[in-house]
Protein backbone atom coordinates (compact mmCIF):
# COMPACT_ATOMS: atom_id res chain seq x y z
CA UNK A 1 0.00 0.00 0.00
CA UNK A 2 1.21 3.51 -0.66
CA UNK A 3 2.59 5.33 2.37
CA UNK A 4 0.28 8.26 1.69
CA UNK A 5 -2.69 6.30 3.00
CA UNK A 6 -1.07 6.13 6.42
CA UNK A 7 -1.26 9.90 7.00
CA UNK A 8 -3.74 10.37 9.86
CA UNK A 9 -7.12 11.53 8.63
CA UNK A 10 -7.23 14.79 10.67
CA UNK A 11 -3.88 15.88 9.19
CA UNK A 12 -5.08 15.09 5.68
CA UNK A 13 -8.34 16.93 6.25
CA UNK A 14 -6.45 19.88 7.69
CA UNK A 15 -4.14 19.97 4.68
CA UNK A 16 -7.05 19.80 2.25
CA UNK A 17 -8.86 22.55 4.13
CA UNK A 18 -5.73 24.70 4.05
CA UNK A 19 -5.41 24.20 0.31
CA UNK A 20 -9.05 25.09 -0.24
CA UNK A 21 -9.49 28.06 2.06
CA UNK A 22 -5.91 29.09 2.90
CA UNK A 23 -5.68 32.88 2.95
CA UNK A 24 -3.68 33.35 -0.24
CA UNK A 25 -5.09 30.32 -2.04
CA UNK A 26 -6.85 32.28 -4.77
CA UNK A 27 -5.94 35.91 -4.23
CA UNK A 28 -7.10 38.01 -7.16
CA UNK A 29 -6.37 41.58 -8.17
CA UNK A 30 -9.45 43.73 -7.87
CA UNK A 31 -9.73 47.17 -9.43
CA UNK A 32 -12.39 49.20 -7.63
CA UNK A 33 -14.11 52.28 -8.97
CA UNK A 34 -16.53 53.30 -6.26
CA UNK A 35 -19.38 55.77 -6.08
CA UNK A 36 -18.58 58.40 -3.47
CA UNK A 37 -20.78 59.27 -0.50
CA UNK A 38 -22.87 56.73 1.39
CA UNK A 39 -22.42 54.18 -1.44
CA UNK A 40 -18.72 54.06 -0.61
CA UNK A 41 -19.38 53.35 3.07
CA UNK A 42 -21.17 50.09 2.16
CA UNK A 43 -18.57 49.08 -0.39
CA UNK A 44 -15.66 49.72 1.98
CA UNK A 45 -16.86 46.92 4.29
CA UNK A 46 -16.93 44.46 1.39
CA UNK A 47 -13.40 45.49 0.36
CA UNK A 48 -12.15 44.93 3.89
CA UNK A 49 -13.53 41.39 3.72
CA UNK A 50 -12.00 40.78 0.27
CA UNK A 51 -8.65 41.96 1.60
CA UNK A 52 -8.96 39.62 4.61
CA UNK A 53 -9.44 36.75 2.15
CA UNK A 54 -6.19 37.51 0.39
CA UNK A 55 -7.32 39.63 -2.56
CA UNK A 56 -5.31 42.64 -3.61
CA UNK A 57 -7.37 45.79 -3.92
CA UNK A 58 -6.72 49.01 -5.79
CA UNK A 59 -9.25 51.82 -5.41
CA UNK A 60 -9.29 54.59 -8.01
CA UNK A 61 -10.78 57.94 -7.04
CA UNK A 62 -10.45 61.63 -7.91
CA UNK A 63 -8.10 63.30 -5.41
CA UNK A 64 -10.92 65.66 -4.47
CA UNK A 65 -13.84 63.62 -3.09
CA UNK A 66 -16.23 63.29 -0.13
CA UNK A 67 -15.37 60.11 1.81
CA UNK A 68 -12.80 58.06 -0.10
CA UNK A 69 -9.67 58.21 2.05
CA UNK A 70 -6.59 56.01 2.41
CA UNK A 71 -7.02 52.76 4.42
CA UNK A 72 -4.59 49.96 5.12
CA UNK A 73 -6.64 47.27 3.31
CA UNK A 74 -6.38 48.80 -0.16
CA UNK A 75 -4.09 50.88 -2.34
CA UNK A 76 -5.59 54.23 -3.25
CA UNK A 77 -4.71 55.72 -6.63
CA UNK A 78 -5.96 59.22 -7.27
CA UNK A 79 -6.13 61.49 -10.29
CA UNK A 80 -6.59 65.24 -10.62
CA UNK A 81 -9.90 66.93 -11.38
CA UNK A 82 -10.32 70.66 -12.00
CA UNK A 83 -12.18 71.46 -8.74
CA UNK A 84 -11.04 72.50 -5.29
CA UNK A 85 -12.42 70.66 -2.26
CA UNK A 86 -14.70 73.61 -1.39
CA UNK A 87 -16.09 73.89 -4.91
CA UNK A 88 -16.62 70.12 -5.00
CA UNK A 89 -18.48 70.03 -1.65
CA UNK A 90 -20.66 72.98 -2.66
CA UNK A 91 -21.53 71.55 -6.06
CA UNK A 92 -22.19 67.98 -4.91
CA UNK A 93 -24.18 68.48 -1.75
CA UNK A 94 -24.49 72.25 -1.63
CA UNK A 95 -28.25 72.59 -1.72
CA UNK A 96 -29.48 69.26 -0.45
CA UNK A 97 -31.22 70.99 2.49
CA UNK A 98 -33.72 72.39 -0.04
CA UNK A 99 -35.29 68.94 -0.21
CA UNK A 100 -36.76 69.65 3.22
CA UNK A 101 -38.21 73.05 2.35
CA UNK A 102 -41.95 73.25 1.91
CA UNK A 103 -42.45 74.34 -1.69
CA UNK A 104 -44.74 73.34 -4.53
CA UNK A 105 -44.09 69.86 -5.94
CA UNK A 106 -43.26 71.15 -9.43
CA UNK A 107 -40.87 73.77 -8.07
CA UNK A 108 -39.23 71.05 -5.98
CA UNK A 109 -38.94 68.72 -8.99
CA UNK A 110 -37.27 71.44 -11.07
CA UNK A 111 -34.92 72.33 -8.22
CA UNK A 112 -33.91 68.71 -7.61
CA UNK A 113 -33.41 68.19 -11.34
CA UNK A 114 -31.21 71.27 -11.47
CA UNK A 115 -29.05 70.05 -8.55
CA UNK A 116 -28.84 66.58 -10.03
CA UNK A 117 -27.69 68.05 -13.33
CA UNK A 118 -24.87 69.94 -11.62
CA UNK A 119 -23.75 66.90 -9.59
CA UNK A 120 -23.93 64.51 -12.51
CA UNK A 121 -21.95 66.94 -14.65
CA UNK A 122 -19.16 66.91 -12.03
CA UNK A 123 -19.08 63.09 -12.02
CA UNK A 124 -19.07 62.94 -15.83
CA UNK A 125 -16.22 65.43 -15.90
CA UNK A 126 -14.35 63.37 -13.31
CA UNK A 127 -14.80 60.20 -15.38
CA UNK A 128 -13.45 61.94 -18.46
CA UNK A 129 -10.39 63.15 -16.53
CA UNK A 130 -9.71 59.53 -15.51
CA UNK A 131 -10.14 58.04 -18.98
CA UNK A 132 -7.86 60.65 -20.56
CA UNK A 133 -5.23 60.38 -17.82
CA UNK A 134 -2.69 58.51 -19.98
CA UNK A 135 -0.28 57.68 -17.14
CA UNK A 136 -2.90 56.25 -14.82
CA UNK A 137 -4.77 54.32 -17.54
CA UNK A 138 -1.45 52.97 -18.83
CA UNK A 139 -0.54 51.85 -15.33
CA UNK A 140 -3.93 50.21 -14.71
CA UNK A 141 -3.81 48.53 -18.10
CA UNK A 142 -0.42 46.98 -17.43
CA UNK A 143 -1.31 45.86 -13.87
CA UNK A 144 -3.25 42.80 -15.11
CA UNK A 145 -6.29 43.08 -12.86
CA UNK A 146 -8.69 40.15 -12.73
CA UNK A 147 -11.87 42.13 -12.33
CA UNK A 148 -13.39 45.60 -11.92
CA UNK A 149 -15.73 46.01 -8.93
CA UNK A 150 -17.94 49.04 -9.25
CA UNK A 151 -21.24 50.68 -8.38
CA UNK A 152 -23.18 51.12 -11.63
CA UNK A 153 -24.98 54.21 -10.32
CA UNK A 154 -21.68 55.81 -11.36
CA UNK A 155 -21.22 53.96 -14.67
CA UNK A 156 -17.63 55.20 -15.04
CA UNK A 157 -16.43 51.86 -13.62
CA UNK A 158 -18.42 49.95 -16.23
CA UNK A 159 -16.87 52.12 -18.96
CA UNK A 160 -13.39 51.58 -17.47
CA UNK A 161 -13.93 47.79 -17.45
CA UNK A 162 -14.90 47.92 -21.12
CA UNK A 163 -11.91 50.15 -21.94
CA UNK A 164 -9.45 47.81 -20.19
CA UNK A 165 -11.27 44.69 -21.48
CA UNK A 166 -11.82 43.39 -17.95
CA UNK A 167 -14.87 41.59 -16.55
CA UNK A 168 -17.04 43.78 -14.32
CA UNK A 169 -18.88 43.00 -11.10
CA UNK A 170 -21.60 45.48 -10.14
CA UNK A 171 -22.23 46.20 -6.47
CA UNK A 172 -25.40 48.20 -5.84
CA UNK A 173 -28.58 48.85 -3.93
CA UNK A 174 -30.51 49.76 -7.08
CA UNK A 175 -30.31 51.72 -10.32
CA UNK A 176 -33.09 53.93 -11.63
CA UNK A 177 -35.01 53.50 -14.88
CA UNK A 178 -34.94 49.69 -14.76
CA UNK A 179 -31.45 49.69 -16.21
CA UNK A 180 -30.67 46.53 -14.23
CA UNK A 181 -33.57 44.77 -15.96
CA UNK A 182 -32.63 46.14 -19.38
CA UNK A 183 -28.93 45.44 -18.95
CA UNK A 184 -29.57 41.79 -18.09
CA UNK A 185 -32.66 41.29 -20.29
CA UNK A 186 -34.51 40.31 -17.15
CA UNK A 187 -38.29 39.93 -17.46
CA UNK A 188 -39.94 43.02 -15.98
CA UNK A 189 -43.73 42.97 -16.17
CA UNK A 190 -45.28 46.34 -15.29
CA UNK A 191 -48.29 44.63 -13.76
CA UNK A 192 -46.27 42.87 -11.07
CA UNK A 193 -43.00 44.72 -10.46
CA UNK A 194 -43.67 47.95 -8.52
CA UNK A 195 -41.80 50.91 -9.98
CA UNK A 196 -39.57 53.33 -8.11
CA UNK A 197 -41.44 56.05 -6.16
CA UNK A 198 -44.92 54.67 -6.96
CA UNK A 199 -45.45 53.21 -3.45
CA UNK A 200 -47.19 50.32 -5.22
CA UNK A 201 -46.85 46.78 -3.92
CA UNK A 202 -46.63 43.66 -6.05
CA UNK A 203 -50.42 43.38 -5.89
CA UNK A 204 -51.92 46.27 -7.87
CA UNK A 205 -55.37 47.41 -8.84
CA UNK A 206 -55.99 48.52 -12.42
CA UNK A 207 -55.32 52.20 -11.62
CA UNK A 208 -52.16 51.36 -9.70
CA UNK A 209 -50.94 49.44 -12.74
CA UNK A 210 -51.59 52.49 -14.90
CA UNK A 211 -49.59 54.60 -12.42
CA UNK A 212 -46.90 51.90 -12.51
CA UNK A 213 -46.58 52.37 -16.26
CA UNK A 214 -46.63 56.19 -16.20
CA UNK A 215 -44.14 56.91 -13.40
CA UNK A 216 -41.10 55.55 -15.22
CA UNK A 217 -41.70 58.05 -18.05
CA UNK A 218 -40.94 61.01 -15.77
CA UNK A 219 -37.65 59.43 -14.68
CA UNK A 220 -36.56 58.72 -18.26
CA UNK A 221 -35.56 62.36 -18.73
CA UNK A 222 -33.38 62.33 -15.62
CA UNK A 223 -31.72 59.05 -16.59
CA UNK A 224 -31.10 60.46 -20.04
CA UNK A 225 -28.93 63.34 -18.86
CA UNK A 226 -27.34 61.34 -16.04
CA UNK A 227 -26.31 58.25 -18.03
CA UNK A 228 -26.10 59.08 -21.75
CA UNK A 229 -22.77 60.94 -21.42
CA UNK A 230 -21.12 57.67 -20.25
CA UNK A 231 -22.33 55.89 -23.37
CA UNK A 232 -20.90 58.75 -25.47
CA UNK A 233 -17.61 58.56 -23.59
CA UNK A 234 -17.45 54.77 -24.12
CA UNK A 235 -18.22 55.24 -27.84
CA UNK A 236 -15.41 57.80 -28.04
CA UNK A 237 -12.89 55.52 -26.29
CA UNK A 238 -13.82 52.29 -28.02
CA UNK A 239 -14.40 53.91 -31.41
CA UNK A 240 -17.72 52.20 -31.87
CA UNK A 241 -21.34 52.90 -31.02
CA UNK A 242 -22.03 52.07 -27.35
CA UNK A 243 -25.51 52.60 -25.84
CA UNK A 244 -26.48 53.12 -22.19
CA UNK A 245 -27.89 49.58 -22.15
CA UNK A 246 -24.57 48.26 -23.55
CA UNK A 247 -22.78 49.91 -20.63
CA UNK A 248 -25.21 48.32 -18.15
CA UNK A 249 -25.07 44.91 -19.82
CA UNK A 250 -21.32 44.65 -19.40
CA UNK A 251 -21.44 43.14 -15.89
CA UNK A 252 -20.66 39.47 -15.35
CA UNK A 253 -22.24 39.60 -11.89
CA UNK A 254 -24.70 41.88 -10.14
CA UNK A 255 -24.37 41.93 -6.36
CA UNK A 256 -27.52 43.55 -4.97
CA UNK A 257 -27.40 44.98 -1.48
CA UNK A 258 -31.02 44.00 -1.09
CA UNK A 259 -33.04 41.25 0.45
CA UNK A 260 -36.55 40.01 -0.17
CA UNK A 261 -37.27 40.52 3.49
CA UNK A 262 -37.42 44.23 2.62
CA UNK A 263 -38.11 44.22 -1.13
CA UNK A 264 -41.10 42.96 -3.11
CA UNK A 265 -40.51 39.82 -5.15
CA UNK A 266 -39.18 40.43 -8.65
CA UNK A 267 -37.79 38.28 -11.43
CA UNK A 268 -34.01 37.80 -11.24
CA UNK A 269 -31.37 36.51 -13.61
CA UNK A 270 -28.78 33.82 -12.82
CA UNK A 271 -25.98 36.40 -12.53
CA UNK A 272 -27.81 38.38 -9.83
CA UNK A 273 -26.88 37.66 -6.22
CA UNK A 274 -28.62 39.23 -3.22
CA UNK A 275 -26.20 40.20 -0.47
CA UNK A 276 -28.38 42.47 1.67
CA UNK A 277 -26.83 41.18 4.89
CA UNK A 278 -23.59 42.92 4.03
CA UNK A 279 -25.09 46.16 5.35
CA UNK A 280 -25.59 44.57 8.75
CA UNK A 281 -21.89 44.29 9.60
CA UNK A 282 -22.22 46.65 12.55
CA UNK A 283 -25.33 45.03 13.89
CA UNK A 284 -26.35 45.38 17.50
CA UNK A 285 -28.73 43.13 19.39
CA UNK A 286 -32.33 44.38 19.46
CA UNK A 287 -33.03 46.24 22.67
CA UNK A 288 -34.92 44.24 25.26
CA UNK A 289 -38.44 45.56 25.52
CA UNK A 290 -39.08 43.94 28.93
CA UNK A 291 -42.71 43.34 28.28
CA UNK A 292 -43.30 46.91 27.14
CA UNK A 293 -44.54 45.86 23.69
CA UNK A 294 -47.58 47.85 22.73
CA UNK A 295 -46.95 50.78 25.02
C1 LIG B 1 -3.74 47.98 -22.92
O1 LIG B 1 -2.59 47.26 -23.32
C2 LIG B 1 -2.77 46.49 -24.50
C3 LIG B 1 -1.52 45.64 -24.72
O2 LIG B 1 -0.38 46.41 -24.63
C4 LIG B 1 -3.06 47.43 -25.68
O3 LIG B 1 -3.26 46.69 -26.85
C5 LIG B 1 -4.31 48.25 -25.33
O4 LIG B 1 -4.56 49.19 -26.34
C6 LIG B 1 -4.14 48.97 -24.02
N1 LIG B 1 -5.41 49.57 -23.64
C7 LIG B 1 -5.52 50.82 -23.17
C8 LIG B 1 -6.88 51.28 -22.81
O5 LIG B 1 -4.58 51.57 -23.04
Residues in β-strands, percent: 5-15%
CATH topology: Rossmann fold
Poorly predicted sequence stretches spanning 5 or more consecutive residues: 1-5
Overall structural class, as computed from helix and strand content, comes to alpha/beta
Number of β-strand runs: 7
CATH superfamily placement: Glycogen Phosphorylase B
Bound molecules: 2-acetamido-2-deoxy-beta-D-glucopyranose
Strand neighbour order, sheet with most strands: 3-2-1-4-5-6-7
Protein name: glucuronosyltransferase
Pfam family, one: UDPGT
Subcellular location: Membrane
Signal peptide: 1-27
Tell me briefly what this model is.
This protein has 295 residues and is of the alpha/beta class. It contains nine helices and seven strands. Strands 3-2-1-4-5-6-7 form a seven-stranded parallel sheet, sandwiched between helices.
Can you give a write-up of this model?
Helix 3 packs antiparallel against helix 4 and helix 4 runs parallel beside helix 8. A seven-stranded parallel beta sheet has the order 3-2-1-4-5-6-7, sandwiched between helices. It is built from nine helices and seven strands, in the order αβαββαααβαβαααββ. The termini are far apart. It has a single domain, classed as Rossmann fold. It is globular, with a radius of gyration of 23 Å. The N terminus is likely disordered. By secondary structure, it is α/β, with parallel strands linked by helices. Bound molecules: 2-acetamido-2-deoxy-beta-D-glucopyranose (NAG). 2-acetamido-2-deoxy-beta-D-glucopyranose binds next to helix 5. InterPro entries: UDP-glycosyltransferase, UDP_glucos_trans. Its EC number is 2.4.1.17. It is an enzyme of class 2 (transferase). Belongs to the UDP-glycosyltransferase family. It comes from Puma concolor (Mountain lion).
Amino acid sequence: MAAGFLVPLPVLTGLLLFLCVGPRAEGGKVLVLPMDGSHWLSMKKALQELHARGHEIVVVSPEVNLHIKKEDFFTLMTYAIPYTQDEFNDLIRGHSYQVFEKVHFLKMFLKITENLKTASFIYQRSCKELMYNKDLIGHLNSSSFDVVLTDPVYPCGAVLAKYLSLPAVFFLRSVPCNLDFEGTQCPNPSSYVPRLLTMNSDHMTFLQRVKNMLYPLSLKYICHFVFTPYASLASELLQREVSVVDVFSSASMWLFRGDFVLDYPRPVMPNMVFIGGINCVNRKPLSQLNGQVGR
